[in-house]
Input
Amino acid sequence: MSTASCSEERKISLNDGHDNRLPRLPVNPRAHPFAIGVAVGTTLLGSGIIPLVLYFALTRATTWPLSTILAIPASIFGLVSLLSLCARTYALAKPSSTCRPLRRSSSNGSAWTLDYYGWNFLLGFVGVSAVITAGLSVAVLPSVRMVATSLPVLMMQVCGQLVLLASMRACGVEKAPWRLSSVGKGEALVPATYVIAEDVLAVDAKQGQLFRAAWKARYEYSVPFGELLARLDWTWGVTGLAVAGGVLGVIWGVEEEEIGWAVGMSDSILLCGQVLADILHLQLGRYHGYGRV
Output
């Protein structure tokens, strides 16, 4: 039988919702609703709701300087982010770590090597800190607009990578130009959603290398699964860039700075809403044509 016919036969079988040969993933989100709720709630509170509420409460209930009022929510956001960064860095760096990216050999990686998401987390933390510091350091009056810009900038960093990898794949780039966690340089280029989901579930959800190996096996076996992740790259990437661009336009375009602050701090709420809506969409089985992926 030819290679082409084998590939076609594989596609047909994997579109069958009753195919039981799919490699199983050792994680079930439905079994951990509390943990998922805590993670999502912490993100929304630390990066959106608390800064939004505190700013308006403190500007109306106190006579504190604007720099102090802006520094309080910025410090909360920074503390939550720093603790998360330190926790996942330690999980990857400790000698007994079981959640590092898969390597071709044990000598091929350093104990102090972060995964792809970890490096992005670090870069985003530094970038957002620089934006907030610049906003608080304005000589005459702290810039509410500059501080509010921090979350849209972070969204553009993440979503820009989704669109970048999706564009590379669409233009025929088949090999990864650099290591993407468990995907080594020169190996088949995968969607950015694949890499981010692998890193977050392996490290932050404590699923470890067992999940990384199962995730890779599912992707390599299931054509529809890979197509779904590629589709999510475009969906989340383009949507995120559009939302971030619109939010930046409002922040710097409206006359009232407080409106810019409210819209800027709602950025993470909009993103989480988009992601949760798509996850619910998948759970309800409304992605027609994919069957069981």
Observations:
- The chain has a mean pLDDT of 80.
- The radius of gyration is 21 Å.
- The longest helix spans residues 223-253.
- DSSP finds eleven helices and no strands in the chain.
